Amino acid sequence: MKKFNAFVGRIESVVGVSMMTVIVAMVFIGAVSRYFKSPIVWSVDLAQLLFIWICMFGADAALKNRAHVGVDMIVKLFPVKLQKTITLCTYILCLCFLVFLVFYGFRLCLSNYLRQYATLKISYSFGTAAVPIGSILMILTLLEQLGGLIAGWNDPKIGTVGQGDPAEAPLPPVS
Asked: For residue 119, what are the contacts with CB-CB under 8 A and spacing of at least 6?
C-alpha cells in the first residue's frame, strides 16, 4: 500500500502543479483579454473547476505529510500509549467523515450530472467528483497511516503526537 500511495502522491503532485499552472495562465490571460475588451468568459469557470481538484489533491498531500493543522499542546503531555490511543481515535473519526464525504459526494455527482457549467458546457459533476475521489485518496492515505500506527504500537517513536513535525526538530547551532 505504501508504494501505491507514493505513486498516487507523485501523480497528484504532477497533476496539481499542472492544474495550478493552467489556473495562473488562464487568470492572467483572462485579465489581459478583459483589458482589451475581449474577455474569455470561460476562463473563470475553468479556474474554479481546476481549483476544486487542486484543493482535494492538496488535502491528500498534506495528509500524507502529516501537515494538517493540529492543536497538540495538551496531548503531548500524556503518556505515549494514550497519545497513540488518541491518534487511533482521530484516524477512525477521520475515516468515518471521509466515508460520509464519499457517499454524499457521489450522490451530489449524480444529482448534478444534468447541470452544466454555463461557459464550459460540461457537466457540473466534473467539479463535484473531486469530493468523493479526493476523499477516497485520503482514505487510502489514512489506512496506510493507521496500519503503520498499529504495526508500531509498541514502538514509542511511532504514532506519537508531533511525529514527523519539522517544528519539533532541534534548531541548528548558531556559529
From this structure: 41, 42, 44, 45
Cell of 145: 497511516
In 3-state terms, the chain is what percent helix, strand and coil (to 5)? 70, 0, 30
Residue in the structure block whose three cell numbers are 502529516: 66
The helix/strand/coil state of 156 is coil
Phi, psi of 68 (to 5 degrees): -70, 150
pLDDT tens by residue, 55-108: 999 999 999 988 888 878 888 889 989 989 999 999 999 999 999 999 999 999
Measured CA to CA in angstroms, residue 144 lies from 58, 87, 150, 168 at distances of: 18, 14, 10, 23
